[in-house]
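We store chain and fold; thus.
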Amino acid sequence: MLFGTPQFIDVEDKIVGPFTGKALLWMFILGAILLILWNIVSTGVFFVVAIPLGLFFLALAFYRPYNQPFANFILSAGFFFFRPKVYIWKKEGRIIKRSVQEDILKTKAPKEKKEINQEKIKKLAEILDKRN
């Protein structure tokens, strides 16, 4: 067979050297912001603002926590912290207290044969239907 299954479809294409298109875009945005900041603020303030900003944009370009882009990671974290938490299903557990004597009596008592007839099945079906 000449053509097989496509491989590496989750790997982004490299545009320039080891940089992908998204990484280049983040770096161009960082460069534009730093150029604007250089012209607006003084040198001392520029370096105080530029270092954390540069680290943040480099993380957006190259850091992949849990194998997802850092921008998606930040977006998911924001949704987690600011959206209301919705619990779809919560199991209600019952605590059953039994004594040791009951366990001993149950193990020693002879087991009775249970008979199943139509009436018992209908009663069980009604009980199950009422629970919903």
